[in-house]
């Protein structure tokens, strides 16, 4: 049986350093510390609920959701149901959501559009019943703005 030695490489050291960041913090102090750590990272993401579904979003994303009837092109929507915020190294999950005072994200309505033509063919065998229905689903497209992490939520 041959002797195999394992030497720490750069990737193993990076994994070990990354593992240090994933340690849990005390619950009473974890949110402000985690938010400051996430704010220091170069890029962030959020998981937010919009139109009844959860989406993973980053700044400048173009999001297509089912038609929002009460908005016009150019309207700015404030995303309030944010479930998670994170970066490459850190993540903060809400229970169930993160308070809107801590994270601000806006979405601008870019357009109202329709999807591709759907063909629905209905038939009852041996009855002579055949119908063809054509349908286009309506959608609203949103541009996600910057993710603003508030430094001191009490102010």
TrEMBL record:
Which GO MF terms does the UniProt record name? Answer: RNA binding; structural constituent of ribosome
Q: Is this entry keyworded Secreted?
A: no
* Entry GO CC: mitochondrial large ribosomal subunit
State a single Pfam family of this protein.
Ribosomal_L21p
What biological processes does GO assign it?
Answer: translation
Name the UniProt key words of this record, in alphabetical order.
Ribonucleoprotein, Ribosomal protein
Similarity comment: Belongs to the bacterial ribosomal protein bL21 family.
Would you tell me the protein name for this molecule? Large ribosomal subunit protein bL21m
State the taxonomy lineage. Answer: Eukaryota, Fungi, Dikarya, Basidiomycota, Agaricomycotina
């Amino acid at each position: 049986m041959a002797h195999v030695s394992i030497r720490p490489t750069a990737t193993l050291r990076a994994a070990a350093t990354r593992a240090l960041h994933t340690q849990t913090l005390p619950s009473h102090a974890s949110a402000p510390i985690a938010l400051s750590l996430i704010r220091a990272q170069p890029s962030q993401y959020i998981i937010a609920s919009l139109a009844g579904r959860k989406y993973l979003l980053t700044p400048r994303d173009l999001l297509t959701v089912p038609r929002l009837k009460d908005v016009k092109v150019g309207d700015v929507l404030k995303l309030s149901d944010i479930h998670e915020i994170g970066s490459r190294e850190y993540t903060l999950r809400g229970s169930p959501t993160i308070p809107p005072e801590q994270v601000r994200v806006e979405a601008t309505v870019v357009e109202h559009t329709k999807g591709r033509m759907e063909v629905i063919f209905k038939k009852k065998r041996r009855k002579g019943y055949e119908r063809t229905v054509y349908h286009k689903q309506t959608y609203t497209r949103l541009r996600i703005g910057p993710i603003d992490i508030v430094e001191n939520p009490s102010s």
